[in-house]
Amino acid sequence: MFRSAGFLTEDEACPEFLLRALGDLGVDASDHRSYRLDPPSLEAADLVLTMEGQHVPSATRLQRGAFPKIVPLKEAAKVATGLGRRLTVDQLLDEVSRVRDPRTYLSKGWDVADPYRRKLRDYRRAVAEIDGLVSEVVGRLV
Fold first, then answer.
1. In which domain, by residue range, is 71 found?
2. Does residue 49 fall inside a structural domain?
3. What's the structural domain count of the chain?
4. Is 125 domain-assigned?
5. β-pair partners for 141
6. 56 within a domain of the structure (yes/no)
């Protein structure tokens, strides 16, 4: 099961440009509402993929023990692709743990571009980037 969550708002609809960009991929998110990340969700998750490096320490502050399973999406994609084979979530997290440098989460190096309140083309770029990264990660998982 997958779930989308964030840090700012709860129960808000997707911005119109996001609905259009997702619609380009055949995804109907018109019923989606934002959900605020909370400690029970972190505890229940096997893997938490973040859109920004800074989200790793932010989520860890919500539940300290969750750090090993909180990974920027770009980092997870890089590690999964670098291994070049199918793997379980635990194997992915073991490899991330082996190579990760938490200091890098304070820079923008792991961030996916945030299109919020920008133009439709920015949403389309972000959706395409996220789609590609998620495909790299999920496509490697067994």
1. 16-136
2. yes
3. 1
4. yes
5. 87
6. yes
Residue 55 CA from chain centroid, whole number:
9
Kindly report, residue by residue over 35-63, the tens digit of the pLDDT: 999 999 999 999 999 999 999 999 999 99
pLDDT at 9: 84
- Helix, strand, coil proportions of the chain in percent (round to 5)? 55, 10, 40
Q: How many residues does the chain have?
A: 142
Q: How far apart are CA 119 and CA 74, in angstroms?
A: 23
The one-letter amino acid code at 92 reads L
Which pair of structure tokens corresponds to residue 7? 């840090």
Q: Report in angstroms the alpha-carbon separations of 136 from 61, 69, 71, 92, 108.
A: 28, 18, 14, 12, 20
Q: What pTM value is reported for the model?
A: 0.93
Indicate which CATH number applies to the domain containing 49.
3.40.50.2300
For residue 87, the SS3 value is strand
